Amino acid sequence: MSAVTCRDVHRRFKDVTALDGVSLEIEPRQIFGLLGPNGSGKTTLLNQLQGLDHPTSGTVEVLGLDPVRQRDQLATRMGSQLQESTTIPRLTVAEVLTTFASFYDHTRDIDDLLAELGLTSKAGSRIERLSGGQRQRVFIALALLHDPELLFLDELTSAVDPQARLAIWDVLRGLRDQGRTIVITTHSMAEAAALCDRIAIIDAGRIIAEGTLAELIGRHTNGTVLRLETETPPTPELLQDIDQVTSVTLDGGVLVVTGSGQFTPVVMARLAAAGIEVTAMGLTEPTLEDVFLTLTGRAMREGE
């Protein structure tokens, strides 16, 4: 059974269409990223999945249940990231966790949770004195108090430094490896590429592509570009029958080979066998930025 299923979900606010026919399947035990610029519909979709809002039309199922009508049944099975204003800044980390633990019938051991998230040394520190990355780890701890199988995290690392971001990624990978499903929203292509098992690109309220990083790049870019300078430029026909090569051209005496997979060693071996010496080489790998540009006709800047 899928952890999350959306079928033709629309959400309209007066004259604004925030979600426009979203259909999505999220399988269990993975980190799934909703990637898109600010205002694309990511948070609106996350609110639908958490039962905080209902679709204008279409259906949403989370762990086989309706997240609005059956939210009480889901409450113990899913965890959500709290916002900064939800915590009390002058309380210590341990006090905040103890306070929120009182809301549940059954919770994890707080000391174990602090250790898992690298917060043991900060148990007696006030929330207001923590770094941005440490506060975000506290929010993850709060979401994990009742040991949920599904986590929803909205722009978790958008305001933290690079070192803290890497530490949070390690935490999330560990939670995934324990068997949890994690759904994140992000506008960072670097984060989506480094962290997520599968990615859905959302723009203007629509899912415009979904898959693994490799699948997205394979479907929506021209592939890896290899540029070679040689003593004697070969004819393109020398390389065109290589399975993974999709195009071979000459650009001002530079041999430009486009393809997928590990085609570079095959190209180099073919040139060597023909007695052609390579004097310079450059390799350009396609990225999520290229995927977004192909799909939308515009670049998506970090922080957009």
From TrEMBL:
The family line of this record is: Belongs to the ABC transporter superfamily.
Q: What lineage is on file?
A: Bacteria, Bacillati, Actinomycetota, Actinomycetes, Propionibacteriales
Any one of the GO BP annotations:
response to antibiotic
This chain's protein is named: ABC transporter ATP-binding protein
Topology in the lipid bilayer: Peripheral membrane protein
Q: Which UniProt keywords apply?
A: Antibiotic resistance, ATP-binding, Nucleotide-binding, Transport
User: GO cellular component annotations, sorted alphabetically?
Assistant: plasma membrane
Q: SMART domains, from UniProt? A: AAA (SM00382)
Q: Which CDD domains match?
A: ABC_DR_subfamily_A
As for subcellular location, the record says:
Cell membrane
Q: From the Swiss-Prot or TrEMBL record, what is one GO molecular function term?
A: ATP binding
Q: Any keyword Thylakoid?
A: no
Organism whose genome encodes this protein? Arachnia propionica
The UniProt entry's coiled-coil ranges are none
The UniProt entry lists the main location of this chain as membrane
| Residues of the ABC transporter domain | 4-229
